[in-house]
Design brief:
This protein is about 35% helix and about 25% strand. It has an 11-stranded mixed beta sheet, sandwiched between helices. It has a 4-stranded mixed beta sheet with strand order 18-17-16-19, with helices on one face. It has a two-stranded antiparallel ribbon with strand order 1-2. The chain folds into 2 domains: about 350 residues, Rossmann fold (3-Layer(aba) Sandwich); about 90 residues, ANL, C-terminal domain (GMP Synthetase, Chain A, domain 3). With about 450 residues, the protein is α/β, with parallel strands linked by helices. The structure holds zinc ion.
């Protein structure tokens, strides 16, 4: 361990919290303890925290006061299953009535805003208080530690438009505390990736963070250019699904296991893999996660179900029973690691990543991409854009062995699912298009279902 790493961990981290009056490290210690509790004790702790935030929400947040059937202070929750008596909050509720979700006890200027892109391209703004942000940082630290990162360890990150340290103060913070350097994924090309590979060799970071697609793109570039592989201790993939075929390449090039994790801007970290990499542990100290079937009832089977989250930290803009728009497969397994935190098998995808057949049935875009990538040689990356029930555009990054047969097989794969009349245009690209936040989508459906 380097001297600077020691100073960062034992001096800069605690000093930073002290200066900011931050609960981050305290919360991190709590989370370290909670993760090993029995499931029953974790459930009790969740219920207590849920009850507290719901009492606050009913008293101080107009949306809940107007829409909830009862006062949780008068009728306390006996179990989290009773959440089903309260309405689910949809994205459009937030978009249309944002101010009704803000607590009357805080000044808006004290809240931190996070914007999310949203599938429709309409931005959604979510606010949270400072303490909530510190708690979220603590949860990220816990998940980072499962990946093998420790405070003070130098890390490299692949982010879209990363923050620039321009003032002396921010430079000092970057040097002593954050210990991070970036590759801007909004500007990913052979030159920037080659330069970044050089920086990785020179600075030898022990941890690597990035969106799944970006990690894969960098790994593939290093591999294709036959550059020296880089040895990383802790690699963390965030923000979107990491396909098994992509994961293999990242793990080979960076000579490490990848820790996949799942969260969103609205509620922070929802789940993360531990050292076992067998499913993801729910961040149960911070969020209550429900799985609902299409009728809105509790879903217990190990099949995909809608993810509905209640945030236990955010008192500035409480989100109770918020439908995040993803589907995941719940699990009743316990993990080999011995942690008491419940597992999910995997995240199946965003509801928005579904394609639609003309009879109205849905096709998981991610599954289709995954299946195609595994079955058809010649493709590095693929994005399916559905323009109408019968019109498809495949944005495709070809591999070296791309040929006529690849094209024929692709057209056949789409027609197998969507019928023989499906028209398929194949667009060969150097890279997949990215959203404003630097992510790529697996599937984009342009059919407006309400119009259809
Ligand atoms: Zn585990």
């Amino acid at each position: 361990m380097s001297f600077i790493e020691l100073i960062s961990r034992h001096v800069a981290y605690p000093l930073w919290d002290l200066k900011e009056h931050s609960v981050r490290l305290d919360e991190h210690r709590k989370l370290q303890r909670i993760q090993w509790l029995d499931p029953a004790d974790i459930a009790e702790l969740q219920l207590r925290r849920l009850q507290a935030v719901m009492e606050h929400a009913y008293r101080n947040v107009p949306f809940y006061r107007q829409n909830w059937p009862r006062d949780p202070l008068k009728y306390p929750l006996q179990s989290k299953a009773e959440l089903r008596d309260f309405p689910v909050v949809e994205k459009h509720d937030l978009r249309e009535h944002q101010s009704l979700f803000v607590s009357e006890t805080v000044s808006r200027s004290d809240l931190i805003a996070a914007k999310t892109g949203g599938s429709t391209g309409v931005a959604l703004e979510v606010l949270f208080d400072k303490r909530c942000q510190q708690q979220r940082n603590a949860a990220a630290m816990l998940s980072d530690s499962w990946a093998g990162w420790r405070p003070g360890m130098l890390k490299a990150a692949l982010w879209g438009s990363p923050p620039v340290a321009s003032t002396l103060r921010s430079k000092l913070r970057r040097y002593l505390h954050d210990r991070i350097f970036f590759l801007d994924t909004m500007n990913l090309n052979d030159d920037t990736m080659l330069a970044f590979h050089g920086e990785l060799q020179r600075r030898k970071p022990r941890a690597l963070f990035g969106h799944a697609h970006s990690l894969y793109e960098l790994a593939r570039f290093i591999d294709d250019a036959q550059l020296e592989p880089i040895t990383i201790d802790a690699a963390v993939s965030t923000s979107m699904m990491l396909l098994p075929v992509h994961r293999k390449v990242v793990e080979r090039v960076f000579r490490t296991n990848v820790t996949d994790r799942y969260g969103c801007e609205e509620v922070g970290l929802i789940a993360s893999e531990c050292e076992e990499h067998e499913g993801m542990h729910l961040n149960e100290a911070h969020v209550v996660v429900e799985f609902l079937n299409e009728q809105g009832e509790a879903h217990e089977e190990a099949t995909p179900a809608a993810v509905v989250v209640s945030d236990l930290n955010n008192y500035g803009m409480p989100l109770i029973r918020y439908a995040v728009g993803d589907e995941a497969i719940p699990s009743d397994r316990s993990c080999e690691c011995g942690r008491g935190l419940a597992l999910i098998e995997k995240v199946v995808g965003r509801t928005a990543d579904y394609l639609i057949k003309s009879d109205g049935s849905r096709v998981s875009g991610i599954s289709m991409v995954e299946k195609t990538l595994t079955a058809i040689p010649g493709i590095e990356q693929l994005q399916i854009v559905q323009e109408s029930y019968a019109d498809f555009r495949l944005n495709l990054v070809p591999a070296r062995d791309f040929n006529e047969e690849t094209q024929r097989s692709l057209v056949a794969a789409v027609r197998e699912v969507f019928g023989e009349s499906a028209k398929v245009a194949i667009e060969r690209l150097e890279r997949l298009p990215k959203t404003a936040r630097g992510k790529s989508r697996f599937a984009v459906c342009l059919i407006d279902e309400e119009q259809a």
